[in-house]
Design brief:
By secondary structure, this protein is α/β, with parallel strands linked by helices. The chain is built from 11 helices and 10 strands. 6% of the residues are buried.
């Protein structure tokens, strides 16, 4: 019984191992010992630092490894590498480039671009020609371009840079690293903005940079002087590094104090913009004003010349004595004028600029224009009716609604009659006369309210219809005769002309 159970466990284990092996072969597709690997040769100009076993990658994914590096024809090298099935097919127009894992030097790997399907697959053992391969730029290749004096200057620069980073400077640089993150984030925003908003912005920027570089090349001597002056400046700063460190610490304190000032400045900018907009018309007129003042300035310059200034001082001496004498009176005058001018500025001018609210009869004009419009009305009421001389116009009101106009001295109550109902009056009479307070400053008082509500009229009294008496009939007859006589004279005068 125990043997049967053990056999079943062994059988189950074998089934699991077999299933795992099949799954591994199906997914990973490893190279079997009896299979010939897919091998490719590539001719490169230099492969000195490419080691055996270096990875072969397509788009950053490992698909094989280097088997060997041999000397090729002439001064070239031949690289032999194996590509797994995951990296196939490799076409005849495939391109290969040796890339460093570190900047400029060391730890090369093979970057393979498999080519296009139209070129056909490269057979195993095929060769990628040197025209389709590339090698990285090495540090000695870069330095070989430089002249001997330039290399010496570069060596001195690196030595001085190492000296600058020695000691406290390196620790200060390490403490500044946390502040790099927001700075680099803003740099990324600037780099994104450098792409431009429209197509062609970046190309235009590159073109302009080319023009700038060409201008710099044309002024090589000036650039050499600038670099020499910069070197002298750095030498002076190196000699004064203690004072420079103290200055930088002071700048840090200044920057901390400048943040609130910048915030206040930002809040003040809208008012400055409004002031600039208001000032712009005056600035446009300033040139003509300055040109008009030039003759006066010329005369003033001639008047204030050394040979004329003593005489001018003698002539102005009596005037100066008079000004000194009236100075106390001017103080009293200005003390009396100041409250008046302040009242005009704070109360009179705002009222004159406001608008009257008279319901549907409102004109929408400011008060000062309403006051000016009263002059034509008064002139029209006081002038002749026409060229024939003064005429008196009578308006007879008829109707059953009476309106009292108040008491007229020597006459009694004056009553008007109309046939239309009275809708109301505006403004309403104040309940009492406002107090007169000459001891209270004008600017501290409340501005008058020009808004007036309409108040309903008193109940209308219908008058009884009656026939006019004898005196009223004679008055109406005299008025009718006078109007007819005036009309005949007017007609006769027009015919005569």
């Amino acid at each position: 019984m125990r043997r049967a159970i053990a056999n079943r466990e062994i059988l189950g284990l074998l089934v699991l191992v077999t299933a795992g092996a099949v799954l591994f072969v199906a997914v990973a597709r490893p190279q079997m010992p009896w299979q010939e690997p897919y091998r490719v040769h590539a001719v490169v100009t230099s492969a000195e630092t490419l080691a055996k076993g270096a990875p072969v990658r397509i788009a950053g994914v490992d698909v094989g490894k280097v088997e060997k590096v041999e000397r090729g024809p002439g001064s070239l090298n031949t690289v032999t590498f194996v590509v797994r099935d995951a990296g196939r097919p490799v076409h005849q127009d495939a391109e290969l480039k040796l890339r460093p894992r570190l900047f400029l030097e060391g730890n090369l790997f093979v970057d393979l671009r498999p080519g296009t399907p139209g070129a056909g697959e490269l057979r195993s053992g095929g060769t990628i020609p040197v025209t389709q391969t590339a090698v990285p730029v090495r540090l000695d290749d870069v330095l070989s371009i430089l002249r001997a004096d330039t290399r010496d200057q570069l060596r001195s620069t690196l030595d001085e840079y190492a000296t600058a980073l020695d000691g406290e400077t390196a620790r200060t640089l390490n403490r500044s690293l946390p502040a790099w993150r927001p700075a680099l984030a803003r740099t990324a925003i600037v780099a994104d903005a450098a792409h431009g908003r429209r197509a062609g912005d970046l190309a235009a920027w590159v073109r302009d940079q080319g023009r700038a570089a060409d201008a710099v090349a044309r002024h090589e001597r000036d650039l050499r002087d600038l670099v020499g002056g910069y070197a002298a400046t750095l030498a002076v700063l190196g000699d004064r590094r203690i004072e420079l460190a103290a200055t930088i610490r002071g700048l840090a304190r200044t920057a901390r104090a400048a943040v609130p000032a910048a915030r206040d400045l930002r809040r003040a900018l809208p008012a400055v913009r409004r002031f600039a907009r208001d000032l712009r018309p005056a600035l446009r007129r300033a040139p003509s004003t300055l040109r008009a003042t030039l003759p006066f300035l010329d005369e003033a310059d001639r008047l204030l010349r050394p040979e004329r200034l003593p005489g001018l001082a003698r002539d102005l001496r009596p005037t100066a004595r008079s000004l000194a004498a009236i100075q106390p009176r001017l103080v009293d005058l200005f003390g009396r004028v100041t409250p008046v001018s302040r009242c005009v500025r704070t109360h009179v001018l705002p009222v004159l600029e406001s608008k009257l609210d008279d319901g549907h009869l409102s004109t929408g004009l400011p008060v000062w224009r309403e006051l000016l419009h009263t002059a034509p009305g008064l002139t029209s009421a006081s002038q002749n009716f026409d060229g024939n001389g003064p005429m008196l116009r009578y308006v007879l009101g008829v109707g059953d609604v009476s309106l009292s106009l108040g008491e007229l001295p020597g006459v009694g109550e004056v009553v008007a009659r109309t046939h239309k109902p009275i809708t109301g009056s505006r403004p309403p009479a104040p309940p009492r006369i406002p107090p007169y307070r000459p001891d209270v400053p004008c600017e501290s008082q409340r501005l008058p309210d020009l808004h007036a509500d309409a108040v309903p009229p008193a109940p209308a009294v219908a008058s009884a219809t009656r026939a006019p008496n004898e005196a009223e009939q004679r008055l109406f007859q005299d008025l009718r005769d006078a109007a007819a006589s005036a009309l005949r004279r007017s007609i006769r005068g027009r015919r005569t002309r």
